Amino acid sequence: MQLSRYHNISPTPPASPGRIRRKPLVETDTVHVEELPDGTQINQYKIGEELGRGSYGLVKVASNEDDHVDYAIKIISKVKMKKRAALTGRRVEMRKLGKVVDPFESIYREIAIMKKLNHKNIVQLIEVLNDTNNDYFYMVYELLSKGAVMPEIPTDNTFSEELSRRYFRDIVLGIEFLHFQGVIHRDIKPANLLLTEDNGIKIADFGVSELFEGSDAFVTKSAGTHYFMAPEAIAPEKAKSQRGKALDIWAMGITLFCFIYGRCPFQDVHIMQLFKKISTEPLRIPDDPYIDPQLEDLLYRLLVKNPSERITISKIKEHPWVTCGNTDLMPTTEDNCTKIVVTDEDITRSVGTLPHLSTLFHAKKMLREKSFRNPYQIGSQR
């Protein structure tokens, strides 16, 4: 039996109100896998039931027999990533500029970022494994067994204003932290917001997230889930005016609307008609249930069509509905955020390695006859 070698990565700085103390990340470069009568064992992880399916792979429970804690292990197909890169045309476009593009650059960058994101409202990445000789990445996350805050939309299981405010405040702090680190999430929605044991919110799924430098990101491609996309993200003539922070804030507005009403404010079974409604139709607040006028005001400010006029995170934190009329103030940015620097070396070293997969985990057995549709899909929106 092979022994595992562990590396401690970047000790955690002192915790602030927004940050939590965490164990040092573990990067494993030697792995032993064994097929047992009751399942597959990868080092100390015993692989269990399937939790979901993502764009590139499967997510399963991984029980750690050392600390008796369950985690979520995400198995990511490199083949799927290569196909997606080819479809987007980025490789062709960059080749014209004389640059060599690694189709896995985005996931390397995502991993490097997530290894350093340490915040109570962000899902924690525990460990990353990479088999250089086969098709799969493995990412081990903390497991939030309660699942998504609102797994399906539309739904009759709506939230009270009080509960919606509690959840929304957690989202605000998580997004402020991400933006402070130069990260745009780009797919905020209830299905990507996971519940903790004490009913807090953690933001998950950074598959389409983007990095930026400076005060904001200016992105030129669409991403995210159709019902949660901002007007500027779906209008080709405005493609150059997409402000990354404003995209996340719009999606936060749609999410808050879903908490209260159990549906998205703009709906249509036909994508082009949906996009037209998002771009041109005014926001309509239903009469039932009745909501606090301050909440109504916030929804209108979050869902302003013009991104330059949309409310900002700093103003959201001061809004009277969010602060209960200034009786429950939000933490300051200084308390909530500590700057994290992601270097090129971090990206290069963002994954550990595995020996030949033929002697290890038979992932193809798990993936056989499985599709790679988005597990957070709402109806036919995506």
From TrEMBL:
GO terms for biological process: signal transduction. Residues 45-322 form the Protein kinase domain. Signal peptide: none annotated. Residues 1-10 have a biased composition (Polar residues). Keywords: ATP-binding, Kinase, Nucleotide-binding, Serine/threonine-protein kinase, Transferase. GO terms for molecular function: ATP binding; protein serine/threonine kinase activity. ATP binds at residue 74. Pfam families: Pkinase (PF00069). Residues 1-22 are annotated as: Disordered. Belongs to the protein kinase superfamily. PANTHER family: CALCIUM/CALMODULIN-DEPENDENT PROTEIN KINASE KINASE-RELATED (PTHR43895), CALCIUM_CALMODULIN-DEPENDENT PROTEIN KINASE KINASE (PTHR43895:SF164). This is Protein kinase domain-containing protein. It comes from Trichoplax adhaerens. The lineage of its organism: Eukaryota, Metazoa, Placozoa, Uniplacotomia, Trichoplacea.
